[in-house]
Specification:
The chain is α+β, with helices and mostly antiparallel strands. The protein has one domain: 2-Layer Sandwich (Alpha-Beta Plaits). The chain is built from 3 helices and 4 strands; from the N terminus they run βαββαβα. Strand 2 and strand 3 form a beta hairpin. It is globular. 10% of the residues are buried.
């Protein structure tokens, strides 16, 4: 089974390639998270929001990541974080070329 974790939060930047450089160490550490298959980084500068779409092997791993991620964001002054976990319907998703 696979589970999507959707996260978004208020964010003031950096954006684009500046974000890429600033967040590279964090991205490297996220790669090592238990149960993580992949992450897509999201950013919307016009709304001052950022976040990500994650694919985990279990809902427990996704929930454990939420706890770690929220603590890290809060320590950096980021609050009002929104999380949702969804079970992935793999058959329909694969029919529509999902990378799972």
């Amino acid at each position: 089974m696979a589970y999507i974790l959707q996260v978004d939060f208020p964010y003031e930047g950096p954006w684009g390639s500046d974000m890429e450089q600033a967040m590279k160490p964090l991205a490297d550490s996220i790669t090592l998270e238990k149960g993580l298959i992949w992450k897509i980084w999201t950013e919307n500068q016009s709304l001052n929001e950022a976040g990500g779409i994650y694919l985990f092997t279990s809902s427990v791993d996704a929930q454990n990541y939420i706890e770690k991620h929220e603590k890290r964001l809060n320590e950096n002054g980021i609050h009002q974080i929104r999380y949702k976990i969804f079970h992935v319907n793999q058959q329909l998703s694969q029919l529509n070329r999902a990378p799972i």
